[in-house]
Write a structure and sequence with these properties.
This protein is an all-alpha fold. It has one domain. Helices cover 79% and strands 0% of the residues. It contains 4 helices and no strands. It has helices at 5-31, 38-41, 43-68, 76-89. Helix 1 packs antiparallel against helix 3. It starts with a helix and ends with a helix.
Length: 90
């Protein structure tokens, strides 16, 4: 596979975007929990947190691994920058 900065940006932004969308969704689900709607609002955060926690390990394992091998971006400093960013988030 040929390295490309464009492909790296698309892959990275979609991955980070999905991670932050699920985090935001988990927060909004959490703030909706009330005594009057507990029967559906208590199980819902578990489902959303399962989705979020399924995406999370890929940030600490696969993404950092690929960035350390410099295979995501063609430009070296982009690999270095996002390696540190992913390490910080994970």
């Amino acid at each position: 596979m040929v390295q490309s900065d464009l492909r790296g940006w698309i892959q990275t932004l979609l991955h980070l975007g999905l991670f932050f969308v699920t985090a935001t969704l988990a927060y909004f689900v959490y703030v909706q929990i009330r005594a009057s709607n507990w029967y559906w609002s208590v199980p819902l955060p578990f489902v959303v947190l399962f989705l979020h926690s399924t995406i999370g390990p890929f940030m600490g394992l696969i993404a950092i691994h690929k960035l350390q091998h410099r295979t995501v971006f063609k430009t070296r400093w982009l690999n270095d920058y996002f390696e540190r960013l992913y390490a910080f988030i994970s």
